[in-house]
Structure formats: structure tokens, C-alpha cells
Specification:
The structure holds two protein chains of two kinds. Chain A is mostly helical. Chain A has helices at residues 2-10, 12-37, 41-61, 65-85, 91-113, 116-124, 132-151, 153-161, 163-168, 173-191, 196-212, 218-243, 247-265, 271-285. In chain B, helix 5 packs across helix 6 (140-153) and helix 10 (226-233) packs antiparallel against helix 11 (237-245). Chain B has a six-stranded mixed sheet with strand order 5-6-7-3-8-9, with helices on both faces. The model of chain B has no long low-confidence stretch (mean pLDDT 90). Chain B is built from eleven helices and nine strands. Classes of the chains: A mainly alpha, B alpha/beta. The interface between A and B is medium-sized, with 24 and 28 residues.
Chain lengths: 286, 246
């Protein structure tokens, strides 16, 4: 551990990796809470994949990857909604159709344009190769996401909890949905270097699910989720550096380990204490 | 007396299938109205189309002397209990606090004033002791009371409730009925989708008997005639026998 801390002090690339990972842990934890509460885990997976063609087009045009990523992410979200509302195809199927199509287009574009190592890095992340510009992008995206959630907390809460009421009093539910999709694409762009497109969804739903098992308050859940994301990022990066493991995958597995700890030991929802309560009740009845 | 709601020539359809046909009625301010009718009569659809939660094909709706858009914030809507995610990480207190959101507007957070109001509304439904519980830990009746408290916190002039008495205990039902009566006495207008013909007489001033079209609307006694009931419930014979036996 000391060795890792010394290395962080010493090497700029490791500092950048750490800062970027922590930021990604925080924002994916925050946005992930709304994703899982709205039952949109699959949608999160879809949008993160659908960012790929946008990234490729941005490379092609030499613009910032944001613009491309947000464009194809939102187009895919709109396409999913359109198929859903205008046919008998169920929601999960329309998600599956659209995002795999977008992803396939992305793979073709990237392989035509660039060497295959780039594709590998975009898909799986390479946190130790974070450039200063990437770090700044992640920080700016992070601030945008956090400020948005803070400002619209009330509206996000009510439209997630009781969408009929929020519509009844005049909130634009559809706009809020697409706003969340924009946040999702931003989180994905920010996570490209750390965990990569394929595993972004884990950072969105695993820490949020861990937090969901630990509290009955949305504000606490968001905080705990961000904390879980951060812890996963730091420990994951440490393990990845020390044992020379793929960074994204290591971070995700730490998040998974935290989830199972909560799943078993959570005071209210955990497997263990639930079993103890059931037994106690049974013996009391006997 | 002023009209709280005027509806004329309302048509609503789902995927090209007509659910409501040519509905027209008026409701005066300060009355409580029960919407009754057999299953699939379009009771909930009517309530939702009044709030434009379901788009209408045709028809004019005037609410509190104005268009819906201008009076949205003066309307409280209590959805069916089955539409709520009871596992959502939210406490009883915070659920009621949501009732203050419409008047707060965007960006503003509920402050001390709003929290006091929420607590007062919780007192009204006798749920203060449960204020820090997660909503899924409550019984059906308690959950319904919490949602009524949220509607009270909206300080609305028009209350729309969708099947509030389904799956709740007698004490909660009585409490809700009494609160609705109090609101009515304060000049508020109450519209309730209701499934139980037995109690409809006791609970409401007026009834709106529905089966895709409006069968009858008026004072309870005027609406509750065998002829009207037969034309609304015609197909559902066992139910009819039950009513006739009374």
C-alpha cells in the first residue's frame, strides 16, 4: 500500500489516473441512483454502448468526443422510444435492437478509421494512459453532472418516484427522461478512459444498488453510492497498479465485492440479519 | 354557485378504440362526486383525461373557471395505490413534503415553512408517529392516508382520487371519508373514482354513473334508480342481483 501511495506522489500519470477514476466513481454513482430507481439499468447499458459511433465520428471530424457521443446517445434513446411507442415490440427488445445497431456502426467506423488498439482502449479503458486533456474533460463533465443533479434534485425525485403526479402538476416528464439520457452519455464519455464503454454500466448500477440496500432515503443513497463508486475506483486502481491487472475490470470487481458485502450484511435488507430475524420469529412462535 | 368543472363532448380513445364517448357534465364548487360504473367503464380514464394525463380526441374541459394549464397547481391528484413503487427509498415525511413541490417551483427546496405544513398534514391523517418510516413498511390503509396527506399539503381547490378505498382497513377508510367531507365543507371540490356501490350513497353528494358513456349524473338518489343501474351494469348480472336485493 505504501508503495502505491509513494508511486502516486511520484508519477503524474498515476495522479491523473486516480483523479479521473475518483471523479468517474462519484458521478456514475450519483447518476446511477436515478437509473436504477427508474428501472433503466438496461437503458444505461444501451446508451453507454450507443456512444461508440459518436466517438468515431468525432475522431473523424476532429471535434471533441462529447458532441458526437451525446448526439448518437440521444438519437439512440429517441429511436428506442419511437419503436416502443409505435409497435408491439417490448421495451427491452427495442433497447436491444437499437443499441446493438449503434454499437455495430461504431465498431465498423472505428476499425475503418483507426488502428484496433484505439478500439480496445475505448471499449475497455486504459486508465494509466489518461492524458491531461482527458482528466480536464472528466472534471468538467463531473461538475456539470453534479450541478445538474443538485439543481434538479426535486424534479428528478418526484418524476422517478411518482411520474403520474409530476405530470399532473405540469412537469415535462419526457424532457426529464431525455435530460437524464444526456447525463448518462456524459458519464459514459467521462468513463471512457477509466472503465471503458463495456463496463460503464457496472459503475452505474452496482454502487447504486449497494447504496439502495443500505438506506431508505434518496439523498443518503446518492451519497453512499458516490462513496461506493469512489472506494471502488481507488482500491481498484491500487490493485490494478500493484498486480498489473486491467484497470476497468479491477475497479468493477471491487464494486461487485462491495455489493455482495451489502447484500449479505446490510442491517435492514441483508441476507444474514434477515435470516436471523426469521429464525428468531419462528422460535418465538414455537 | 360557481362550477368547479365543466366537461362537454369529451371523447377519449386508446389505440383507436373508443373508451369514452361524448361525456358532458358540470360539477359545482364545494361538492363531492363519486364516479361509479362497472369494470372497464372508463372511470380512471375519465379522471386521467381531465388532467390531460391521457390525451383526448375531442372535447372541452373547463376547470375552476379556466384552462387546465392555468389551474394545474390548484389540483391534487391521488393515484391508484398499485401504480406506486413502494420500495422507493423515501420516508413518510418526505413523501408528504412532495405535496409542496408544485407551488415551490423549479430550483427551490422545501424549507421550514413547507416542513411544518407537511407535519400538519401528517397530523391530520394521524401518521406523525410513522414519519420516519420507509413507505413500504406501512399497511395499505396507512399508505393511502400518507398519500392523502400529500394531497392536503398541495393546498388544492380540487381533489381527484383514483380508487382510494381499495385494499384498506375500515379505520383508514372512515378517516379518509371524514377528511374528504371536511374539505368539501370548506368549499373544496372532490372527485373520487369508486368501485363499491354499497357505500357510494353515504360517501358522496352526487354520483356520475359511467359505462363508456355517461348514464346518469346528479344527486345520489336521482342516479341510483334501478333503470340507471341496469343500463350501466346490464351485463354483470350477479352484481345486479345484489343491488336489487337491497
Amino acid at each position: 500500500m505504501m508503495q502505491f501511495i509513494e508511486a502516486v506522489m511520484q508519477y503524474g500519470f498515476l495522479q491523473k489516473a486516480l483523479i479521473t477514476s475518483v471523479m468517474v466513481g462519484i458521478i456514475s454513482g450519483v447518476v446511477g441512483c436515478f437509473i436504477i430507481l427508474r428501472g433503466m439499468a438496461l437503458m444505461g447499458d444501451a446508451i453507454s454502448h450507443a456512444v461508440l459511433p459518436g466517438v468515431a465520428i468525432s475522431f473523424m471530424l476532429g471535434i471533441n468526443i462529447f458532441f458526437g457521443a451525446v448526439t448518437t446517445g440521444i438519437l439512440t434513446a429517441i429511436g428506442i422510444g419511437f419503436i416502443n411507442q409505435n409497435s408491439r415490440i417490448k421495451n427491452d427488445s427495442s433497447i436491444g435492437i437499437m443499441f446493438t445497431a449503434a454499437f455495430a456502426v461504431g465498431i465498423i467506423l472505428i476499425t475503418v478509421l483507426k488502428s484496433s488498439t484505439d478500439l480496445y482502449h475505448i471499449l475497455f479503458g486504459n486508465v494509466l494512459a489518461v492524458r491531461p486533456s482527458d482528466m480536464w474533460i472528466t472534471l468538467i463533465v463531473g461538475i456539470i453532472v453534479l450541478v445538474s443533479v443538485f439543481l434538479f434534485y426535486k424534479e428528478l425525485l418526484v418524476s422517478s418516484f411518482d411520474p403520474i403526479m409530476s405530470q399532473a402538476y405540469g412537469l415535462p416528464n419526457k424532457l426529464i427522461h431525455y435530460f437524464l439520457m444526456v447525463l448518462l452519455t456524459l458519464v459514459t464519455v467521462a468513463s471512457l478512459q477509466t472503465v471503458g464503454i463495456i463496463l460503464v454500466v457496472a459503475m452505474l448500477i452496482t454502487p447504486a444498488s449497494t447504496a439502495y440496500l443500505l438506506t431508505d432515503r434518496l439523498s443518503t443513497m446518492i451519497f453512499l453510492s458516490a462513496l461506493c463508486g469512489t472506494i471502488s475506483a481507488v482500491i481498484g486502481l491500487y490493485l490494478s497498479f500493484t498486480y498489473n491487472l486491467a484497470s476497468g475490470a479491477t475497479i468493477v470487481l471491487v464494486a461487485t465485492a462491495l455489493f455482495f458485502a451489502a447484500f449479505i450484511f446490510s442491517p435492514k435488507q441483508g441476507l444474514l440479519l434477515r435470516a436471523i430475524r426469521v429464525n428468531r420469529q419462528k422460535s418465538a412462535v414455537l | 354557485m360557481k362550477n368547479a368543472m365543466t366537461v362537454s363532448n369529451l371523447h377519449v380513445s386508446y389505440y383507436g378504440k373508443e373508451v369514452l364517448q361524448d361525456i358532458g357534465f358540470t360539477i359545482s364548487e364545494g361538492t363531492s362526486v363519486g364516479i361509479i360504473g362497472p369494470n372497464g367503464a372508463g372511470k380512471s380514464t375519465l379522471l386521467k383525461s381531465l388532467l390531460n394525463l391521457i390525451p383526448k380526441d375531442k372535447g372541452d374541459i373547463t376547470i375552476l373557471g379556466s384552462t387546465l394549464k392555468e389551474v394545474r397547481k390548484r389540483i391534487a391528484y391521488v393515484p391508484q395505490r398499485s401504480t406506486i413503487d413502494w420500495d422507493f427509498p423515501i420516508t413518510v415525511k418526505d413523501t408528504v413534503l412532495i405535496g409542496t413541490y408544485p407551488t415551490l417551483g423549479i430550483f427551490k427546496r422545501p424549507g421550514r415553512k413547507e416542513k411544518e405544513l407537511a407535519l400538519k398534514c401528517l397530523e391530520k391523517v394521524d401518521m406523525v408517529a410513522f414519519q420516519n418510516r420507509q413507505i413500504g413498511e406501512l399497511s395499505g390503509g396507512q399508505q393511502q392516508r400518507v398519500f392523502l396527506a400529500r394531497a392536503l399539503a398541495q393546498q388544492a381547490d380540487l381533489f381527484l382520487l383514483d380508487e382510494p378505498f381499495v385494499g384498506i382497513d375500515a379505520t383508514s377508510e372512515e378517516m379518509i371519508v371524514n377528511i374528504l367531507k371536511e374539505l368539501r365543507d370548506d368549499g373544496k371540490t372532490i372527485i373520487v373514482v369508486h368501485h363499491d356501490l354499497n357505500k357510494a350513497e353515504k360517501y358522496f353528494d352526487e354520483l356520475l354513473l359511467l359505462n363508456k358513456e355517461l348514464i346518469a349524473k346528479g344527486r345520489v338518489k336521482e342516479v341510483f334508480t334501478p333503470k340507471n343501474i341496469v343500463s350501466a351494469y346490464g351485463g354483470q348480472l350477479s352484481f345486479l342481483d345484489e343491488v336489487m336485493a337491497k
